[in-house]
Amino acid sequence: MCFVYNADPERGQEWQRLFAQHAPELPFRLWPEVRDPAEVRYLGTWEPVDALERFANLEIVFSLGAGIDQFDLAAIPSHVPLVRMQEPGIVATMQEYVAMAVLALHRDLIDYLGQQRMGIWKPRRVRPAAYRSVGILGLGQLGAAVAERLSGLGFPCRGWSRTPRQLAGVTCYAGESALGDFLAGSEILVCLLPLTERTRGILDATLFERLPRGACLVNVGRGAHLIDADLLQALDRGQLSAAVLDVCDPEPPPADHPLWHHPRILLTPHVASMTQPESAVAMVLDNIARHRAGREMVGVVDRRRGY
Ligand code: NDP
């Protein structure tokens, strides 16, 4: 029996050390060093792995990220649960990134970067966070934590989810029918949705029209949530005033793509949050113990919902 790790080899060394420390009885292999396919009991992977049927004793696939849209769910044997990362490290780093992005937009940092490059000294009016409402698409593990952090900074927060949620200090909206009301009061819109059939392309011209004029966008979900051409048009027309994008489709964008050079876009290379080995290994080992004891695991993907 062994756990196989298939992702960044450098972080894999850390995982190996942590497994040796916390679960010395469970052999750990760094992909592709699998000696016998029959020994693979647990697979932790960022990328999909082909032909999983060859691992006859596979019991759990762990996605090493919070999202699972990179996997073809039909290619994972139906008796094998897919478990995504729900661990404090991913949450903490996402809270930091979104706070940074929202504060940068709120305090006109994109304008000041442009002004600095042109040698322009021009102050803009400053208003406290209480005057700027933030809307968060997705109120799951990450969206809820981000709302809590932004509320703490003084931003009035609203959130949108598929099923009704109740979060202290957050005005919650659920379902397609509530999307318009939610958007109408979102001056900075943060996308923290999973990529599914229903959410692909959701950040399009129609949605941008429903935001207050001059709203800003932070996309930390997936690149395929966004229709790039619609964003560029909305920015050029002034319907949107700026965007911070951590994800795009494809990653990276082609060298001549306007996302690289648009003066009102800040682009980062999919670094908003990252799985942290210490807390992720603890989560994986806890889930393995739960599975062995016949208890429910944390973060099991609902194949019908697609997230
Ligand atoms: P969760 O599954 O915990 O939360 C997803 C949220 O989205 C839930 O509130 C869910 O509603 C809502 N949702 C899903 N589908 C719909 C829909 N059709 N309409 C309305 N709401 C919907 O996911 P996480 O918070 O853990 O992660 C969210 C995403 O963040 C990931 O899937 C990934 O794409 C992205 N991500 C990006 C990272 C980066 O570095 N840029 C890092 C980590 C994640 P409900 O509550 O009703 O289920």
TrEMBL record:
<dbReference type="GO" id="GO:0051287">
    <property type="term" value="F:NAD binding"/>
</dbReference>
<keyword id="KW-0560">Oxidoreductase</keyword>
<dbReference type="InterPro" id="IPR006140">
    <property type="entry name" value="D-isomer_DH_NAD-bd"/>
</dbReference>
<feature type="domain" description="D-isomer specific 2-hydroxyacid dehydrogenase NAD-binding">
    <location>
        <begin position="100"/>
        <end position="272"/>
    </location>
</feature>
<protein>
    <submittedName>
        <fullName>Glyoxylate/hydroxypyruvate reductase A</fullName>
    </submittedName>
</protein>
<keyword id="KW-0520">NAD</keyword>
<dbReference type="GO" id="GO:0016491">
    <property type="term" value="F:oxidoreductase activity"/>
</dbReference>
<dbReference type="InterPro" id="IPR036291">
    <property type="entry name" value="NAD(P)-bd_dom_sf"/>
</dbReference>
<dbReference type="Pfam" id="PF02826">
    <property type="entry name" value="2-Hacid_dh_C"/>
</dbReference>
<keyword id="KW-0670">Pyruvate</keyword>
